[in-house]
Automatic annotation (TrEMBL):
This is Uridylate kinase. PROSITE patterns: ADENYLATE_KINASE. The gene is KAFR0C03790. The lineage of its organism: Eukaryota, Fungi, Dikarya, Ascomycota, Saccharomycotina. Pfam families: ADK. Keywords: ATP-binding, Cytoplasm, Kinase, Nucleotide-binding, Nucleus, Pyrimidine biosynthesis, Transferase. It comes from Kazachstania africana (strain ATCC 22294 / BCRC 22015 / CBS 2517 / CECT 1963 / NBRC 1671 / NRRL Y-8276).
Length: 195
């Protein structure tokens, strides 16, 4: 892909910060294709005949980052599939969350336009995840997994955000207010950055 064919925005933030929620609103209003790396991994985990099913399940339960080869291939396939249908604008949600992924994706697929970073305290994220866990059915929405996800976010994913920040490519949004208030901030941040 080249920069003229597709545009990608990385959507990052801690577990339960609200990445998926805000992406859904952007899809509705701006026609982005929303690709959640976590959703793609969960779909691959459930796909009959997948050779990675049990590996993915274990990584997700332990809050660890699945080897980049798997995730990048899933993202690449999803982008190709949508590109063939004419879609050019992508929100890549929950990725890259480890340095190697950031480097490889931008080398082999496309350089992201910028990064939307949803900043949220662990207290708020924990509350949201436990609430969602009552009905989500996600194997990582329990206190043990959540603690591991928080640790991975701090140790492994924050360095990625710092890397993009050093290149002045991060738009930081506080997401502790209501969904609609957060979305207003997102929209005004986008207004400045989209052509
Ligand atoms: N909610 C949302 N916004 C709210 C607001 N403003 N006020 C009040 N409530 C709000 O939201 C979470 C909950 O909060 C929902 O109930 C929502 O209604 C409410 P959501 O929008 O789902 O937050 P999100 O940030 O998307 O949380 P998610 O749990 O999806 O984040 P994670 O980053 O933890 O999960 P993801 O699916 O991206 O990854 C899961 C796992 O997959 C990772 O831990 C990892 O093991 C693996 N993974 C990889 O290995 N590699 C990857 O590249 C990506 C994932
Ligand atoms: Mg999500």
């Amino acid at each position: 892909f080249t920069q003229d064919q597709i545009s990608v925005i990385f959507v990052l933030g801690g577990p339960g910060a609200g990445k998926g929620t805000q992406c859904a609103k952007l899809v509705k209003d701006y026609g982005f294709v929303h690709l959640s790396a976590g959703d793609l991994l969960r779909a691959e985990q459930d796909r009959e005949g997948s050779e990675f099913g049990s590996l993915i399940k274990n990584y997700i339960k332990e809050g660890l980052i699945v080897p980049q080869e798997i995730t990048i291939q899933l993202l690449k396939n999803a982008i190709l599939e949508n590109y063939e249908k004419g879609s050019t604008k992508y929100l890549v949600d929950g990725f890259p969350r480890k340095m190697d992924q950031a480097i490889t994706f931008e080398q082999v697929i496309v350089k992201a336009k910028f990064v939307l970073f949803f900043d949220c305290s662990e207290t708020v994220m924990l509350e949201r995840l436990l609430e969602r866990g009552k009905s989500s059915g996600r194997i990582d929405d329990n206190i043990e997994s959540i603690k591991k996800r928080f640790k991975t976010f701090i140790d492994t994913s924050m360095p990625v955000i710092e890397y993009f920040n050093e290149q002045s490519r991060v738009v930081k949004i506080n997401c502790e207010t209501s969904v609609d208030e957060v979305y207003e901030q997102v929209q005004s941040a986008l207004k400045d950055r989209l052509d």
